[in-house]
Amino acid sequence: MATFSTVDELIRILDEDPQLREALRARLLSQELLNLPAAHAAFTSETQTFMSGMGEFRAETQAFIAGMEEFRTETQAFIAGMEEFRAEMREFVTATNRRLDALELRMDRGFNRLSHDIGILRGNYSENAVSRQAITIAFDVGNAKGFNFDETTLKPLDRDTLVRKAAESGLIADIPQNERASFYVSDFVAEVRDEAGETHYIVVEASFTCDKRDTDRAISHAELMTKFTQKRAWPVIAGVRLDSEIHHIVEAGDVLWFRFEQDEIRSDY
User: Fold this and answer.
1) For residue 238, how many C-alpha atoms fall within 13 Å in the half-sphere facing its CB?
2) C-alpha dihedral sign at 108, 113, 115, 116
3) What is the tens place of the pLDDT at every residue in 243-255?
């Protein structure tokens, strides 16, 4: 057995005899302390592994954040694009509405012009039909009013004759200019005598569909004819159809309606 007398000799003996050194360590230290180096090494290894994992997690997190930033940038660009698209769409809708409004206005104007032109054509055709049916109209008026008109005395009056009769009456200054102008362009006026030789006038307004305007004109023109000539004048409206608004006027006898068949309304040319 080795002996020692100093600490240095003990250290030398322990350095030379590993078994003795381990036996002494086991004797002096608890099991926990003996296991401490191994535990420390394991902890160090686990810590290194954790730190390595954390580094990888950090890298992935940074990559995720970078991806989110890129997504945010793309989203902002998309939103900006959508706002621009919305602005363009609003401008497009506004411009389209303006064009549609303008088109609707042109169509309305065109339709109104077409309706007006058709109305004029129908009115002209109706006036032609009145001229062809003048004797029949005169007989109908005579029957309705209790007179026998002599067809041989039936004489249509032109514009110049109407103007002359108005002027010769001496009453022209009392008639508003618009009423005189309307009277001068009456659709049809004819002079006829009854069996007693008394002069009558038949004043006709002709339309495809007779309405309130035609009725008012016929009555007004007949009243003016009576005022200018001091003779009876009978208002007549002639057409294919009668507007429901004036049924009661016809039924009251204020104006006579002479009905055409539609095939009678045609051009003479």
Assistant:
1) 34
2) positive
3) 999 999 999 999 9
